[in-house]
Amino acid sequence: MPALTLLTLTDRFQTDLAATVARLRQGLDGIDGAIDLSDGLDRLLVGLGERAPELTLVAIGGTGRRERSLGSDVDLLVLCDDVLEAAPQRIVHPLYDLGLEVGLTVRTVDDCMALYSAGEFDSWAALLEARYLAGPRDRFDHLTAALRRAIASGDAATFLRSALTGRD
């Protein structure tokens, strides 16, 4: 199936958003509203990811957890082989044009794994809730396998203590 045009993607997102807002006004409960908002955003993000097939698009933070509300930002990780050559503009510019606040991180898998040793526990913890959206799946699988290995090693208890207390 060919990739949808940018106009089609953004129009569908806006239509989905308007429908969800109308349903919320008619009494849709908050959890179902969050699911609807997340589904609409996921459709948009997957479509945008198809416009940059060399990049792996990953939802993190609230976006990864599918905890979406009307004012939520969009937390994204772009996994790539070379950060300097990554060009995520085809993904993020349409999001900005829609008025969405975007939290974007561009990293290699090795960069992600180095967050722990650098003491960036909040960023590293966000990876534990990462959710694949689009692009080469092997990068995401490599990341999740590396995360599992790190957690299975003796470092997991130290990480959890540091994450919970907010310090080394």
Can you walk me through this structure?
The longest helix is centred in the N-terminal third of the chain and has 21 residues, at 30-50. A four-stranded mixed beta sheet has the order 3-2-1-4, with helices on both faces. The termini are far apart. By secondary structure, it is α+β, with helices and mostly antiparallel strands. Strand 2, helix 4 (89-97) and strand 3 form a beta-alpha-beta unit. It has helices at 6-25, 30-50, 61-65, 89-97, 109-117, 121-127, 137-152, 155-165; strands at residues 56-59, 74-79, 102-107, 131-134. Helix 1 (6-25) packs antiparallel against helix 2, helix 5 packs across helix 6 (121-127) and helix 5 packs parallel to helix 7 (137-152). Helix content is 58%, strand content 12%.
